Amino acid sequence: MDPLAKKIIKGGLVAELVDIIGAYILFKKINTSQDFRQTMRKKFPFILEVYYKSIEHSGMYGIREQDQEKWLNSKN
User: Fold this and answer.
1) CB atoms < 10 A from the CB of 18, how many?
2) How far is CA 75 from the centre of its chain?
3) Contact present, 36 and 29 (Cβ < 8 Å)
4) Cα gap 74→68, rounded to integer Å
5) What would the pLDDT profile of 5-40 be if each residue is shown by its tens digit?
6) Is the separation of the CB atoms in 31 and 48 below 8 Å?
């Protein structure tokens, strides 16, 4: 195999690994911090919606409602 092709493949694999690690870190932060979810709601609501749908798909319900209740109460 051509050395340039090996470098391209290796670079692609490294980029994929960085993406997977980044997605895991983001999910862990969203999953453990209600304050971070509120920040995500303000800045990136589509990402938060994907989070809610994925955890609801896995059978965990009520997180969205808890967040909305807390944020509503904090405004009052």
Assistant:
1) 10
2) 25
3) yes
4) 10
5) 999 999 999 999 999 999 999 999 999 999 999 999
6) no
